[in-house]
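[agent] plan:
  1. take the single chain provided in the ticket
  2. run structure prediction with default settings
  3. attach structure tokens to the ticket
  4. add a short note for the reviewer (M.T.)
[agent] executing step 1
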Amino acid sequence: MFGVAIGIASALFLTRFLQRLLFGVAAMDWVTFAAVALILSVTAVLASYVPARRATRADPVLALRSE
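[agent] step 2 finished; step 3 output follows
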């Protein structure tokens, strides 16, 4: 969540510089900012959840012996 907050803050800062390059699109589109933050957060949670779920199914003794 810290990374998402930093990303949104930097995007808001950089929109001032990029506003001249955008034609027909609002630079401060809050729906887009929220959607991107939500998609990235869900992706990060799923990317962490799947390996963690798989790790909980492994027997710790067998995992330690294999190394």
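[agent] step 4 note for reviewer: The helical segments are 2-18, 30-57, 60-66.
[agent] ticket updated
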